[in-house]
Write a structure and sequence with these properties.
alpha/beta, Rossmann fold, binds 6-O-phosphono-beta-D-fructofuranose
Length: about 350
């Protein structure tokens, strides 16, 4: 393929929690930038920490080979939020100023920020400081505003669904109420999708407040109606009164008290974020990465790449920053699950 000489020098960083597909996105940006546009690609270490400390390395096409299927991020990540406590001590330079200085010293034309809500907000603030920035939405939580999907989500739903499938064995054999707690931060997307895919009888998400007694009645009705076991899929972000420990632990105790049924809890945790990305995430991350390089080539900075009706489009970071995409009570999936008799606890 004939290169389109573009001459830009781009930095790539990955920030926030790791998730499956980050390396596929790095590869998508990097390979397109090098192969199609003949750009120079600089990998920044450990999210914004790497720009603060000026830790980086050039990424060649060779460095980007063999990483498509790998979990985690070859660049490392951190939860550094440079604009939080951005004030400086005596003789200390503030983090945003350091980032700007190092961006200039590295002679970057654009910085690609691969991350979730926190990262995209920081990316927007850096754009306001005059940096050229392009964002790529990444998170298992799927809660980034302005895009239909984030990569990482599909892999997490696959992993969570497999876990629920496996819980059916013990639920069935021992006639128990099995409660599984899934990640998602303040959003219920993972619990909703995996709950439906895994045939959860009760699905609790932060967006729909629940009543313990209604859940207890629902479970007792099932057990009286020849369904002696049930699966409850709950999101980590649901509210529980005076919680000490996991939401699953709290509900396991409460449901047992209210129903007299045998309950057990599982907190799936970081398993949901680890390992090789699903084929769908590899494809989405590749599309996002490659489209981000196209945006940079056209110098359309200040945007995030987003999926809308199966097309990748630019969405201004200003529209995304500080926003959250949450599940709505009228979401078609919630409606369909209710039609099947799934209990949302309300
Ligand atoms: O945003 C991804 C996520 O895994 C959330 O689902 C979860 O609440 C959070 O990160 C956990 O954060 P940490 O990696 O800092 O423990």
């Amino acid at each position: 393929m004939a290169k389109i000489r573009n001459g830009q020098r781009i930095g790539i960083l990955t920030a926030g929690g790791d998730c499956p597909g980050i390396n596929a996105a790095i590869r998508g940006v990097g390979k397109t930038a090098i192969v199609k546009y003949d750009m120079k690609v600089i990998g920044i270490s450990d999210g914004f920490t790497g720009l603060i400390n000026k830790e980086y390395r050039e990424l060649t096409e060779q460095d980007l080979s063999g990483i498509l299927t790998m979990g985690g991020t070859i660049l490392g990540t951190s939860r550094e939020k440079p604009f939080k406590r951005a004030g400086k001590g005596k003789n200390e330079i503030s983090k945003p100023v350091l980032i700007k200085k190092h961006y200039e010293q590295l002679d970057l034309d654009c910085l690609v920020c691969i991350g979730g809500n926190g990262t995209l907000k920081t990316a927007h603030l850096l754009a306001q400081e005059g940096l050229n920035v392009v964002g790529i939405p990444k998170t298992i939580d799927n809660d980034v505003w302005g895009t239909d999907l984030t990569f990482g989500f599909d892999s997490a739903v696959n992993i969570a669904t497999e876990a629920i499938d496996r819980l059916h064995s013990t639920a069935n054999s021992h006639k128990r109420i099995m409660i599984i707690e899934l990640m998602g931060h303040n959003a219920g997307w993972i619990a909703l999708y995996a709950g439906i895919a895994g045939g959860g009888d009760v699905i609790l998400i932060p967006e729909i407040p629940y009543d313990e007694k209604k859940i207890a009645d629902y479970l007792l009705n099932r057990s009286r109606g020849n369904k002696p076991y049930s699966i409850m899929v709950i999101a980590e972000g649901i509210k529980t009164p005076g919680r000490d420990g996991s939401a699953a632990h709290y509900l396991s105790r409460r449901i047992s008290e209210l129903t007299g049924l045998d309950t057990r809890e599982t907190v799936l945790g970081y398993i949901q974020r680890g390992g090789s990305p699903s084929p769908m995430d590899r494809v989405l991350a590749t599309r996002y990465g490659s489209s981000a390089a196209d945006l940079i080539a056209r110098r359309e900075y200040g945007n995030m790449v987003a999926l809308k009706n199966n097309e990748i489009i630019p969405v201004p970071l200003a529209e995304v920053a500080g926003m959250l995409k949450l599940v709505e009570n009228k979401d078609p999936l919630v409606v369909k699950a209710r039609n099947l008799g799934t209990c949302f606890g309300d």
